[in-house]
Amino acid sequence: MGTVEIKLAQKPLRLHKAIVEPAFGEPTILAGNAWDYVSMWLKRNKNGKREEALYYWEQARCFFEATLRLPNDSACLTAYYCMLNATKALLSTKGKPLPGKHGVTGKPSSSRVSLVGEQITFSRGGILAALRNYLLEPTRTEKYSIKDLFYNLPYIHRAFKLTYSSSSIPELFVPVENPRFVRKRKSDEAWFCVNIANPRYANRYTLNNLPKGYQRDDGEENEFVVRRKRRFKWSRSTSQRKQNKARLINYHQAVRKSFCYIHATRTLWYLKKALQTSSASCPKVIHRSSLTMTFAAMHRLSELARYQPKRFMRHFDLQQNWLLCEFIRISPEQFIDEISSEITGRELLSPGIRPKS
């Protein structure tokens, strides 16, 4: 089947970091400091709500900078308040009300210290519920363990698999390349597709665990291409530009439920498998954004550090020590990158540094 890549403003359309209001067609922002760019964006787009958002954003920056100077057993406190205020900045920017409660609680399921024993409840109200609602996620009450949440976070998934090496816990993420939107030649039928270039994943096992609504594109004989079955209309008429963009945004929101990224100098995209596991030792597969899960996990760690410091410190003496440290160290920057894109609609990347010859 002959296809052509869809372009907007002469730029090929790719997956976007922002889920809700992606600014398709706009250039990527190369910023050494996301904090400064978002502050500038909020000041330039100032109104009553965005003045409030700027306050929360600057508070989040202060907590972020404090986090960098603290040891891991204290950093989770400031990291959580960084995430809380950054979330408030997002909600304020979009004109959403700010609930008075956090919207997430936690408690141990037993006296034995383990990540699976740290239970977290997503409430129907509060800041986390407001974030879930904004990200088009269900806001029902749900319970997970920290181990469940960590398993579902792509930026620490390698550390998770090295920590829990059991064969009963399969890999959840597949690295993908060239995630793009294409159109059938001489037609308005368009869809999303992506390449799986790594031979380790280009196999029947991956196909058997694709998310619902995806399949291999048999028309691509020389490459392993996965495509979304459902299509959307991309009119070739210039008079339909506004309608095209609206349809693309709606379609993209559905696609992003199955794809996530890791923040780096080059954005790394991953397909999240739809695993059907029956093993009691395997964590749950959670169909939520990294923002939601990171917020909840960091809240539980901050609760432990405040109210149960002895239990909290025991975690650093156990098998999951390195995994816990990786989460505390990496998650604030990943969270802020994702929130920055949601606030501004733009994609931010750190400028690459050319190595010396």
Identify low-pLDDT runs.
353-357
Strand content bin: 15-25%
Q: What series of H and E elements makes up the topology?
A: EEEEHHHEEHEHHEEEHEEEHEEHHHE
The best one-word shape is globular
Q: What count of domains describes the coordinates?
A: 2
The tally of beta strands, per DSSP, is: 16
Q: Can you tell me about this structure?
A:
The protein has helices at 34-44, 48-69, 72-93, 127-134, 146-151, 157-163, 204-208, 241-255, 290-307, 309-315, 321-344, and strands at 3-5, 7-8, 11-12, 29-30, 104-108, 118-122, 142-145, 173-175, 177-184, 189-195, 214-216, 225-228, 232-233, 259-262, 268-272, 348-349. By secondary structure, it is α+β, with helices and mostly antiparallel strands. The protein has two domains: 3-24 and 173-271, no CATH class; 31-171 and 275-349, no CATH class. The strands form five sheets. Strands 1, 9, 10, 11, 12 and 13 form a six-stranded antiparallel β-sheet that branches. A hairpin with a 4-residue loop joins strand 9 (177-184) and strand 10 (189-195). The longest helix has 24 residues, at 321-344. It is globular, with a radius of gyration of 21 Å.
Question: What is the secondary structure topology, with strand pairs?
Answer:
Blueprint: E1 3-5, E2 7-8, E3 11-12, E4 29-30, H1 34-44, H2 48-69, H3 72-93, E5 104-108, E6 118-122, H4 127-134, E7 142-145, H5 146-151, H6 157-163, E8 173-175, E9 177-184, E10 189-195, H7 204-208, E11 214-216, E12 225-228, E13 232-233, H8 241-255, E14 259-262, E15 268-272, H9 290-307, H10 309-315, H11 321-344, E16 348-349
Parallel strand pairs: 4-16
Antiparallel strand pairs: 1-9, 2-3, 5-6, 6-7, 8-15, 9-10, 10-12, 10-13, 11-12, 14-15
Helix pairs in contact: 1-2, 1-11, 2-3, 3-4, 3-9, 3-11, 9-10, 9-11
